[in-house]
Design brief:
Layout: H1 5-8, H2 11-15, H3 20-33, E1 39-40, H4 52-63, H5 76-90, E2 99-102, H6 105-116, E3 122-127, H7 131-139, E4 143-148, H8 159-165, E5 170-176, H9 188-201, E6 205-209, E7 234-239, E8 252-255, H10 258-271, H11 277-287, H12 292-312, E9 328-329, E10 339-340, E11 345-346, H13 349-360, E12 362-363, E13 365-366, E14 376-379, H14 384-398, E15 402-403
Parallel strand pairs: 1-12, 3-4, 3-5, 5-6, 6-7
Antiparallel strand pairs: 2-8, 7-8, 9-14, 10-11, 10-15, 13-14
Helix pairs in contact: 4-11, 5-11, 6-7, 6-10, 8-9, 12-14
Length: 406
């Protein structure tokens, strides 16, 4: 006798989609391990090393024996550094007790959803959205209500459309700006319009994911939580993965109303406890430093954005906008739906991303994972020569796809 997994596994976990970003990155690695020269633009991860002074701080922390449990919501020192950062960079005012440090911003979002959503509660998710929002909401018992914007609107949802989606069951509004997967940045005025809709309702908590804060080409990041009407209605999520190139250190955080911080603290205390002690010590050093490395990375990303956009525009049928942040491009590739190269047929964005991997050996992610089935996501956090080669492979590959669909 052996266990029947479909009887053993919870309905919730069986309904959960695997993270498409992680799946495509693994598929690229698998292909590469077979000796194929794959260029993976699938995983959203800065290609720069963590700045040396941050690594050195962790090294020192380890050497002096900072290797024990920390308080569940993070060390007081790190939470103080986060409060200072929020105050000076975001005009957000928190006490350390309102901050919860987690094992990545992903956990911060999961904590918030688990702490707030009951079965049947609705969370409005602005699309294109980051893959995990919808699955975290569902896993927490909530119902994701997706409100979308297309490339013609620079993938930014209008406040009036958010208003139409609000019901008596709406508890959360979740979005990222700068946005993963589109790179779009909501302007101050656009955020003000969203704030007005949310504040008018008064019963909705905004989960503002600002993890790409430093990779913003507009010159100024705006936090929705800093609007007076939003101060008690916003959980601001951020982390070290992108801005400080610390993906493997697993550190994110949220600042929000005291009741929410207490609840996240309780959830985290039963599930994972505090994040890694030496990561936290180094992160406090990172936050108290100048943003020299972050700004250098941003300049690099901006240059690469322009490089890749100029190359993508040469591909017939690709529709490309000009995102103002993060390190992703989200071209509309629907022109190729209904085409075949004689070997594979492309019906949709999933097929397109799959074909680029198997036929051109370039890893991307289908837009369907982000709530848009016309586009694919490319991360341009890669070396220039890889980016140039990847786009040239895609261009050569799609040239062989002709309309034929049955
Ligand atoms: N939010 C967004 C929008 C992201 O792109 C990521 C990247 N993984 C995360 C949250 C989570 O980041 P982490 O858990 O590495 O802090
Ligand atoms: N945020 C990154 C991405 O979107 C990392 C992968 C993940 O955590 O999903 O690719």
């Amino acid at each position: 006798m052996s266990i029947n997994p479909s009887k053993m596994l919870s309905v919730k976990v069986q309904a959960m989609e695997e993270s498409a970003t992680i799946r495509m990155a693994q598929k690229s690695r698998d292909l590469a391990s077979k000796g194929v020269s794959v260029i993976s633009l699938s995983l959203g991860e800065p290609d720069f090393d963590t700045p040396e002074f941050i690594k050195e701080a962790a090294h020192q922390a380890l050497k002096k024996g900072n290797t024990k449990y920390t308080p569940v919501p993070g060390t007081l020192d790190l939470r103080k550094a986060i409060c200072d950062k929020f105050k000076t960079e975001n005009n957000l005012h928190f006490e350390p007790s309102q901050i919860v440090v987690s094992n990545g911003a992903k956990q911060s979002i999961a904590n918030i959803c688990m702490a707030t959503l009951d079965e049947g509660d609705e969370a409005i998710v602005l699309a294109p959205y980051w893959v995990s929002y919808v699955e975290i909401v569902k896993f927490s018992g909530g119902i994701p209500v997706v409100v979308s914007a297309g490339i013609e609107d620079d993938f930014k949802v209008k406040a009036s459309h958010i208003k139409e989606a609000i019901t008596s069951k709406t508890k959360l509004l979740i979005f990222s700006s700068p946005c993963n997967p589109t790179g779009s940045v909501y302007t101050y005025d656009e955020l003000a319009e969203i704030a007005e809709v949310v504040a008018e309702n008064g019963n909705i908590l905004v989960v503002s994911d600002e993890i790409y804060e430093y990779i913003n080409f507009t010159g100024k990041h705006a936090s929705i939580g800093a609007f007076d009407s939003m101060r008690t209605l916003t959980a601001t999520v951020n982390g070290f993965s992108k801005g400080f190139s610390m993906t493997g250190w697993r550190l994110g955080y949220m600042g929000g109303p005291q009741w929410l911080a207490d609840a996240c603290n309780k959830v985290q205390g039963q599930i994972t406890s505090g994040a890694a002690s030496f990561s936290q010590e180094a992160a406090a050093v990172a936050l108290r430093s100048e943003r020299t490395e972050a700004m250098a990375m941003r300049e690099n990303f901006l240059r690469r954005r322009d490089l890749v956009i100029s190359k993508l525009k040469e591909i017939p049928g690709f529709k490309v906008n000009q995102p103002q942040g993060a390190f992703y491009l989200f071209p509309d590739v629907s022109y190729y739906f209904g085409t075949s190269n004689g070997n594979v047929t492309i019906h949709n964005a999933d097929d397109f991303a799959e074909a680029m991997l198997t036929e051109a050996h370039v890893g991307t992610v289908s837009g369907s994972a982000f709530g848009n089935d016309q586009c694919i996501r490319l991360s341009y956090a890669a070396a220039d020569e890889d980016l140039i080669e990847a786009v040239s492979r895609i261009k050569n590959c799609v040239a062989n796809f002709k309309k034929n669909i049955s």
